[in-house]
Design goal:
The structure holds two protein chains of two kinds. Chain A is an alpha+beta fold. In chain A, strand 2 and strand 3 form a beta hairpin. Chain B is mainly alpha-helical. In chain B, 69% of the residues lie in helices and 3% in strands. Chain B contains 16 helices and three strands. In chain B, strands 1-2-3 form a three-stranded antiparallel beta sheet, with helices on one face. In chain B, helix 2 runs antiparallel to helix 3 and helix 8 packs parallel to helix 11. Chain B is globular. Chain B starts with a helix and ends in a 6-residue tail after the last helix. The chains are: A alpha+beta, B mainly alpha. Chains A and B meet through helix 1, helix 2 and strand 8 of A and helix 7, helix 13, helix 14 and helix 15 of B.
Amino acid sequence: MIGKEFIDGTSLDRTTRSKILIYFVSFLFVILIIRIAIIQLVDGEINLKRSINNRVTLETVKAERGLIYDREGRVLARNRPSYSLFIHPAQVPKAKPLKHQLLSLVDTAGERVFEHSFIDSIFKAEKELRKMSLGSLHFDFSETNLFSYLLNLTDKQGTPFFDLSYMDSVFAKRVIADSTICKLAKDNSLPYLKDKILKIYNSEGKCLVDTSTLDNRLSLAYKSKGTKSRLAEDISIEFVSIIQERIGELDGVFIEMEPRREYPYGEHLFHALGYLGDMDSSEADIFLEKKYERSDKVGKQGVEKQYEHLLRGVDGCRYVEKNVRGRKLGVIDEYPSVLPEAGHNIYLTIDAELQKRISDEIPDSVKGAVVVINPKNGEVLALVSNPSFDANIFSSARDERGKEWVKAQNDPLRPLVNKAIKGKYEPGSTFKLITGLAAVDSGDSETGPIPATDFMPVACNGTFHFGNTSYDCWRSRGHGSVDLYDAIKSSCNVYFYQVGLRMGYQTINHYAELFNLKTPTGIDISGESDGYLSGREAHNVKHGHRGAGWKWTRGLMMNLSIGQSQSLTPLQIAMIPTGLATGDLYKPHLLMEERTGDNTFIKRMEPQLIHKIPMKASSRDAVKEGMFRVCYDKGGTGSHTKLDYLPVGGKSGSSENPHGDLTHALFVTLAPLDDPEIAISVVLENVGHGGAEAAPYSKIVLDYFFEETRRGKQIVEKYKGWTEERWHQ
Amino acid sequence: MKKLFMKGKFDMMIFLIVVALWVLGNFLVYSATINDLTGDLENTFEKQLLWTGVGVVLILLIVSIPTRFYYKITPWLYYVSLGMLTLVMFGGESAKGSNRWLPIGGFRLQPSEFAKIGLLIMLARYLSKRSVSLYSIRTLLMPGLIILIPFAMVLKQPDLGTALVFVAISLPMFYWAGMKKREIFFLISPGISVILSSIPLIASFGVEDFSVMDKVRSWIPWLVFMVILVQMFRLLKPPKFLIITLLIVSVLTVVLSNIVWTKGLKDYQKDRVISFINPQADPRGNGYQVIQSMITMGSGQVTGKGYLEGTQVNLSYLPEQHTDFIYSVLGEQFGFVGSMIVLGLYLIIIVRAILATHNIRNRFANLLLVGASSMLAFHIFVNIAMVAGMMPVTGLPLPLLSYGGSFTLTISILIGIILNAKGDTENY
């Protein structure tokens, strides 16, 4: 049947080959036997010890989060130790099956409450019941509770498992012994544990956690049974010692130390720094992929979020041995471990003292923002959003945090919103700097640039007529005939109406875009809004749905020229003086330096040039001359900010707002005007005129910077002998 | 059926050992899953009971069909297994970063398991009429192709463990089909070269201050091997073309392994390699599994803690305790004695299968026996070595004990083939 070619060599040949194969396999088995003998016989005893209740666990050693400093080395964010109570659901003993629990019930006479035969008959028939335990019955093991719980157990069709008449007869004639109910409670480990935790009080009679919080946390914890979850955090030393005393009753519960973030400048820097919080479920996957644990806190908002990757460091791990009750005995050195790598420290461009001065001065009832930038490199010296919120709340105990958080969320002053980068405001007259620059630099398409010294055809008498509408100047008796310098100084609307009409919105918006007023500036924290510049297309897109009457008309050019139709963030408004400083527009940034955890220098953030604004130096100087007059000339709107030892330029703005009686007050500043090192924008809601209400805050910044900082004093030194006559040396 | 039993061709001993191990396996799976907290392992035991029941029937079925029938349908079985591998490439289900499963009915089949059988019998059929020699490369073209196609497809999933099973089946079969020991050595020398040349890569992985001296030192094993290889060339004088090819291949592999390491390997694969060579590098993940596995196994000491008395498995600390790590569950409950008895039973199956070749003149049957027992031995060795912390976590289950539908069926077929081939003496 099988051909000759199938015949497999000689018998001897086969024997030799099969012997070799058997030797080889045996050799492999001998290796296995030796190895198994080592593990089970030689190391057996150690392994047995370690296996009892699984004494060996892999423990994460958290890396210390990097610290945050300001430009002068003041600490802005640090870590303090704190204690938290954790639960590891897998270590909580499991509840016994319902059948066993019911059979263990004994009445006061010592007899079984439920007869064996009855219980058996039910449990044989009903497969679902076999897997049940009283674990789903919440603590309170009174007879009545047990009675109604059992009666409520139904199969899928809704038929009760326990017959009402039978149950009645059982519960009517017997009194269940307290001791067995108690035992039931202990078997029913989770509710028992819960009860034990709820009964932890300190000497003032305050409980560790309240019922609803504990319920929430336990249900969360049991969603991931294999990992530990927090039950209570930042607990006092008193609680720690109380819990340690009772830890024997609390299987699966333990205390661990974890660092908490502390912000010495809490309320002053909330928006720039951000805070740490639990990860959202939406971002959890991304973090878990990066080897985070679910209970890790992550940076939310601001610098903490932006530089999470620098600050976090790399967690280590090690094997620790625990006793039966979960208490740590020590680290097992022979198993591999990984040392944690501390996160990097970062130094911000922020001057915390300046930030504090500003935010202390603005009343808590006023909404607004102040941005201070170094126009030569984009470093942000202050980023104030008012009112603020104390980030230290996030490190406090959960319930208090929740209360404060809800209060802040419902506060009409919106303290949680970073108004400096997210709030949108009409720039008002501060925008006239852009309109003015566009006029002298480009002008209209037919006749070209409009010389700064030119008067406009119509002198200002308080109103300007266009079509059949009249447009007011803010000063009802008018400014007369003014050139660009005086138009900026006195903020004459009529002048800017006319140059605006000559140029059209395209030219003005072209310059506005060069100053990065349309797109977000790209500052290194998230949540920044973009700007809105108006113009025919933008206006029609925004208002088109409201009907024909809302279409763009040339009359709207009036509002656009004087900054009454745009909406910009305070940070963008700060880009106006920043761009005028040298013509180089740098991206505003908060990160100055990165260092290792032990403060060894790693790198300094290089200034990032957005672009060189294409404009003639003479055009820039013309606008600056106007800004100078704002502060130093009689009739200027910014006399509040002038310094007598070096030249300052400014521009006020008062933007109308539909909601309040008073206008929003704005002021932008540049100093020293001929070689600027500091650009400021102040935006305050509903406080009145920019020159009167916003300019004083600029002055606070200038005073601090030039009188109290090293760099400021150096600059002042250079201006010795300067007189208020000219803005350039 | 009865007739086969009567004629004494049916190896009752192997059959009984297999059934005994399956029974034990079911008990172990039960003990490993009964106290699971997550609820994911519900019905695992019942399913395994079903699979092993099907397995027994499958063995008896395979035994009762004459070997020559398998010889005839071999190509079809091979093509079907390739077809399934192709399907899994396009319509498979993924888990843990690899694409291995094919949903059929309510089950998830793992085609790479059946590809092991497909490859085994296809190779046996091809080699049953031909001899192979490394010195005449031509003879290796077809067998090479037969192996490489499923090998590449499985590697793509990626499933390194199964791909290596293919190699482990093939080498002993080549040896049986005429290849000499030295040829086998030359054949695997590129593989050894890859492993040794990867030492510098692995040693420098994650090490910041890896100095030039460290680098030189880490190359020494590879250089020593190359010297040995060249000496072998001088002593054994293989054909020139082979020397040149092997030298080129050995050097090429070094270059390739560098490229694969830096560009091709996924992180979890790198982790596995690293945790094999240096468990210090990964105390989490694989390192954790292996450490827990060793504690579990070791805590059984001489006689074990007794059935259902295991403490480790009860707390679900050991992941995949019912599949890849079942041997440590055995070790915990039945101790060194239990571990050794099981090893002994495995050895009896393998040795009986190989010894049977003494009396069988049918080369197809012999090749089946050699291939099937190699496959068993390889699975057993790699799995237990992994559980005992000697090898990377490759994901190869333990024959007859581990939970798993496709795997249990594959092993049934394998045992069926062994018993069938053993009974083939009468054909001459």
